[in-house]
Amino acid sequence: MATWPAIAPPRPALAALLAALLALFTSLAAAENPLEAKVKAAYLFNLTKFVDWPDLPADALHICVIGSDAIGGLLGELRDRRVKDRPLRIDRNGGVVPGNCQVLFISRSEDGWRDILQGLSGSTVLTVSDRDSFASNGGMVGFYTESGKVKLEINPRAARDANLHISSKLLELARSVP
Amino acid sequence: MGLSLHTLPIKTKLVLIILLTSTLSLALAAGSFIAYERVRVKDELVKNLTSLARVIADRSTAALLFDDAEVARETLNALKVKRAIVAAAIYNDSGEVFARYDSGEERPYPFPEGAGSGVQVSTLGNHLHLEEPMVVDGAQIGRVVLRASLRELSLVWQDFLLFAGLIAVLTFLTTALIASRLQRLVSRPLEELTGIARDISEQKNYSLRAKRTSDDEVGTLVGAFNTMLEAIESRDRELTGANRQLAQGEERLRQINEELEHRVEERTAELKALLDTATVGIVLMKDRSIADCNRRLDEMLGYPPGDLVGQPTRIWYRDDADWTRIGNEAYEQVIWKGQTYLTEVQLQRRDGSLFWARMSARAIDPRDRAPGVVMVMEDISAERAALEEMRRAKVLAEEATHMKSEFLANMSHEIRTPMNAIIGMLYLALRMELPPTLQNYLSKAQGAAQSLLGIINDILDFSKIESGKLELEAVEFGLDSVLEHLSDAIGFQAEHKGIEFLIRYDVGIPPTLIGDPLRLGQVLLNLCNNAVKFTESGEVELAFHCLSLNDTDLNLQISVRDTGIGMNEETQSRLFEKFSQADQSTTRRFGGTGLGLAICKHLVDMMGGRIWVEDSRPGKGTTMCCTVRLKVAREALAHRRELLEQVGPLLKDMRVLVVDDNQVSREILAEMLRYFQLDVAVAANGESALDTLQRAGEQPFDLVLMDWRMPGMNGDQVIRLIRRDPVIDRKPKVVMVTAYGREDVMTLAEKAGVDGFLVKPVSPSTLLDAVLTALGRGRVLGERKPAEHHPGNGATLDLKGARLLLVEDNDINREFAVELLHSMNVQVDCAVNGEEAVAMVQRQAYAGVLMDIQMPVMDGLEASRRIRQLAAAPGGERFATLPIIAMTALAMARDAENSMAAGMNDHITKPIAPDRLMATLARWIQPPRDGAPRPGPEQGAAPNAIPAELLALESLQADQGIKRIGGKVDAYLKQLKRFREHYPDAARELQRIIAERGVQAGEEYCHALKGVSGNIGAGPLFECVAAIDTELKEGRAPDAAQLALLAQRLAAVMADIDSLARPGVGTASAAAPLLPAELVRRLDLLHAALDHDLGAAEGLLAELRGGVAGGPLEPAISALARQVDDFAIDEALATLADLRAQLANRP
């Protein structure tokens, strides 16, 4: 069996996990529970497959997580995976240098997100957050919950401004804003 | 069906062929096209579906990854446009259906959960399934499965088939139409031709012709058909003409037949006349009955003409047995095989009288017995009688011839015996002091007797040649010995006439040859004799020249040159004819039978050569030449080389001066000396010899060979001058060369002081010997030929006390050998066969064994092998080294090899030469170091003087025999006596043994006889026995002539021995010793007898010899007997008186 590129461990476990995850989402939509974190971590990882960076560094692909230790921890488990033929590097909180990241997740708990976004102006960093209306307010990809499921909203213009190309396949799934 | 197809008209066949062909090709084309379309349409569908599946898989990755089934379904719904797709599904990685689509055309397909099959395309029933993996960033995250209905595809195929069928029908119809139209082009002319052919065969009208309409194959066929018709038409006309001619021919034939019959009648009559006039009976027989016969047959058998026809052939046979026998012999075996049966048989006439007839019968046709057999019958009574007469005459003639040769053989002996007596007596008489007249008479008588003997010998030889009885021997001999005899005979004559007799050797001639020395000597003697005879002054030169020489064969050219009267050409041409001489006057002047050269020619022919006159002119001399082929004795050449190697260093660079007034003689000597590597100078007379010696200076001469008789100064004078000459400071040794028999010269030379003598003609060996002796270089040749120089002394001392075992079955030979060995001071034990010998060598240690080869019980070869085998036993080492010397009369190389192979050390051949035995023993036998002292060798070895009576014997070479037995005359005489007792009738005995016990036994007997006869020196007998022995060895019994010769020679020997047995020489051991008184009485009687009655003296002498045998008086009595025999009566009387005095003085 081919290696599973996503966060999921071996299939039966993941299947069970997803099933449970979907069931729980309806009741635990608002709270940052572990299942929701897992989905978000998986989505963060999967996003890298549908985005093209113009200046991808040769040594590694950095996914940075600010806030939400749960997502950071889950992603940390994927450290050995390779993405776009490069090793995956997970930077968390204090270790994060925003300019060096390819994907930067800013948890909704972080209030300084606007400053971060401003600081990243002109750099090719895909910014992601689960804060409401993040994409409408200068972010690129936002996670929102609809009928118990985590969904995506994407600001294509912001991505284009950052010189990033997001696959039409992803755009087809997501809600475009603004 | 095949049959019906054949009967169809050509046009139908053509149409059928075209239709079948086109339909088949169409069906084949349509079929392959449809098959191809089927595959292509399906492939296209798969290709379409695959690209659709790829698009779906690609578009759905994000939906699957971000868990948006709605979006996935929407993507799948896009498949609506493709009617063939009835269902589709997206599976996630766990094998669950994530999203699905159904076209609604069929009932929803239950996509199975689980992992995919991995097969991209598969057909399930009427549906096609297509599976496409979904891959993101190199990893599979799920798959898309499409299910398409194949119904659409089937519809397409149906359309195709329909269309193809339509086209096929259309094509078929069109083709049929075109074919039925076009076939007429071919079939119409054929139909026309067929019609014409049918018309011709029905009407037999060959003048009809077909019309030619085209130029194709059919056109050609029509043309050929017409040509054929023309040919048939003309043949038909010819046939009619021929039939008419045939009828005419038959008539002619009948006439010819009549003519023929007439002619046959004529011929038959002629033939009948022919047969009737034949001098032989001719008969035609069928089934052994007489079918027809001629008149002669009737006459021969005594029947009236025609009576025999119809009779069985039995009537002319004596009895049924003859008739049956000839019937059996003749018919199946011969006649019916197509051969001619020929026989002679006694037949019966009508009147019962018998006659001999020759019959020759042959079948007329061997394959067919009906025509019968023709036979010719001849009366051969007269012929028979003549033949019988001839046979009788032949037997008589043969008897006469046999008697003639018997007579000649007897005559030979009978004439020679008195001739010997005459010549011997004349010789003795001439030695006496005689009045000159008597001396002259006797000399002439001697000469006449000699020539008479020569003539007799010639005639006997010639008669032998004429009757083919002359046979050549093949024995080893040295040319030297032949020449020695020649010199004895010729040298004296030559010297007597004052002619130089020279022999020029070819140094290449091997010392030992194989051939017939006596016959070679005879040729040489004859040629030289003639040369001397016809030469009054000058020289006779006998020269030898090797024409060719290899290891085995020698082709020798002999030439005899004289300076005599020569011959004219006419004489030369008749020279070798028998009874021819130069002319009648020659006969008167020189005598001779004229047979000599004819005999020589025969002998030379037999020796494989020829003889001719090389050069002859009246008054200038003659050169006669002949060639002979001889064999070279084994090892002779090697020996020669060996000898040269030995001699070479001794003589090399010695300086020799040859002084001889005769140029040829000088050359011959110089040539021989150069061969021995000497440095040779020559001088023609005494003065120049002295001159040469004086001028030699720094290189003085070591040796001078000086001829005695030279003009001006004789040899002895020159020698004296040399001895006195002060200029010649180093005096050379001098050897005097003299002509034959000049004892006076020897005396002169000895006085002059010479170092040696050589008697002309000089042979290489005597020359070498003389040179070496004179130079004090030892006698190399002496070692080679001890027989000539060492009569058994030197080595004798070395053998003193040695004990040998002699193994010999023949008692005479044994006695001989024992005597011989005793004379050498060797102790001898005897064994009579091999078995005894093997036993005896084990009992006592011998210094050596002398082993005969052929012996009863166990032969010498086997005995030697047994003795050598003893060496293997413990303590038997001495048997390995015990010298065993074979004594054999076999004397062939093969036998020597055999004896060596049996373990013997050496072999000597019988008759045993004492010197050879000595030399051989000396080589092998170690005398005991502490040998007991024995009497000195002189006593035994000193040879007694050989009585003249013994030497005069014709059949025995007594000197040789005595030499073989160690020089003891008495022992020799004893041996002769024993021989006389054992072999009085050996020829008949031999014949009896061969007849009764076979050739093998005969050979043993003959072998013994050969040894004995050799030992006693019975040369001619030995030759004869040896020849028979050789024959027997090869398994052939001797013929009557050989046996007759043996008997004759044996008789001669016996007669000689008997003559010795008379008082005077008689056997010494015969009587008991006489008392001194008896001796005295007999001596007195002898005295009286010598005075008055010589006849009585012989008896007395015999008694005396017997009485003193072995005693001290024996030599005196022997001497007395000799004197009496020599008719030296006065001396005998003196001896008698001495003896008488001795006896009187004895106590």
Characteristic terms for this protein:
heterodimer; A: 178 residues; two-stranded antiparallel sheet; 10 strands; disordered N terminus; B: 1147 residues; alpha/beta; 5-stranded antiparallel β-sheet; elongated
> Largest sheet of chain B at a glance?
7 strands, mixed
> Biggest sheet of chain A: strands, sense, closure?
8 strands, mixed
**End-to-end Cα distance of chain A:** 42 Å
Order of strands, widest sheet of chain A: 3-4-2-5-6-7-8-10
Number of strands of chain A: 10
Number of helices of chain A: 6
Q: Tell me, what's the shape of chain A?
A: globular
Percent strand of chain B equals: 15-25%
Specify the overall morphology of chain B. elongated
Quaternary organisation of the protein chains: heterodimer
Rg of chain A (C-alpha, Å):
15 Å
Average pLDDT taken over every residue of chain A: 79
In terms of structural class, how would the helical and strand content of chain A be classed? alpha/beta
Instruction: List the uncertain runs of chain B.
Output: 779-797, 930-944, 1063-1070
Distance N to C terminus of chain B: 161 Å
The secondary-structure class of chain B comes to alpha/beta
Helix residue percentage of chain A = 25-40%
